[in-house]
């Protein structure tokens, strides 16, 4: 019964995550959803700045703190290992739902691109970013990243193998393609408002801090193998001549991203 309950829990949370992911695309791209980053009446500037900063900070703290190994060791004293990742995904999704719901638009224009070619180019980069995010999760292990593999293993009475390291496809050129995809999606817009700029700057800062924390964890987990990878491959921008040299083909679930 515990295994069945875990699978139902994991499946429900994954459905919530996927809806939240799709809504995030529409939210940042000002697409046809009830609330976007630039929709709704504009209120006083200072309360909007404070509320938006608190919403972004809440997501960043939840997302980073709960991903750390020390927190996981403490957290799994109360939450079964099989649903630890699922619970993390649930709370991250709820933090995003709160952000979408309570976000205050700040509509002062920062830049506006009106030429059709420029608009098309920026929209293409926006969609490329989101595609890169989703593709990169499947290149590592999408279903483990979002907790489904863990609950399925519990149902079948199996133990997941220890994390191992590999660099599939784009991971040979850039260490953090998921984060690169987010940056492309958040910054590529033909109309950049002050509110959107606040969102893009804050998430960029969070991503850089998150990379530092994650790489510290990955060095602790994989040691010299990850140090060599870090020396060979760029962090976010693929550069000519920087590419991971072949390593033994081993799995790499990247626990923190």
Explain the layout of strands and helices.
Layout lengths: L1 H28 L15 H21 L3 H7 L5 H22 L6 E4 L3 H25 L1 H4 L2 H8 L21 H11 L3 E3 H29 L1 H9 L25
Antiparallel strand pairs: 1-2
Helix pairs in contact: 1-4, 1-7, 2-4, 2-9, 4-7, 5-8, 8-9, 9-10
Q: What characterizes the major β-sheet?
A: 2 strands, antiparallel
Count of domains: 1
Beta fraction of the residues? under 5%
Helix coverage percent: 55-70%
Quaternary assembly: single chain
Mean pLDDT: 93
* Strand adjacency order, main sheet: 1-2
Distance between the termini: 31 Å
Description:
The structure is a single chain. The protein is mainly alpha-helical. It is 64% helix and 3% strand. It has helices at residues 2-29, 45-65, 69-75, 81-102, 116-140, 142-145, 148-155, 177-187, 194-222, 224-232; strands spanning 109-112, 191-193. The radius of gyration is 19 Å and the shape is globular. The chain has a two-stranded antiparallel sheet with strand order 1-2. The protein has one domain. The chain contains ten helices and two strands.
Summarize the structure.
This protein has 257 residues and is mainly alpha-helical.
